[in-house]
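SAMPLE LOG
Freezer: B-3
Tube label: C17
Construct: single chain, 142 aa
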Amino acid sequence: MTRVLVFGTFDILHPGHEYFLKQAKNQGDELFVVVARDSTVKQVKGKPPHHDENYRLDAIQKLDYVDKAVFGSETSDRYKIIEDINPDVICLGYDQDSFTDNLEAKLQKRGLSPEIVRISAYMPHVHKSKHYKEQGQKQKAG
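STRUCTURE (predicted):
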């Protein structure tokens, strides 16, 4: 069984996320999704997510092509969860850069050597979380 891992915020789940997750699932047999903690999102993006971590995890868990969804780590060791899951493949989004610098080398130091696959974008001019957040702001203002 080939285990595939993805990680991200998945704040406003949209067709771009679904495309990414389905493409990741196509890389193996089991899809594990690590959903970022609220504290991590705030640290990385400088602001809290639109939806809290429980809402985001629940949304991911409801997808029938996701085999397991878990929260990311709340400790300073952000890569421990990868070690715990021990994936054969890690899929990254086309624009994903958080915790990806020297990812392969960091994992090799832990005795892990998953294949790292960058998934292409799906209509990023339309399906990107910031576009959905902007639309929500316009609707509230209107």
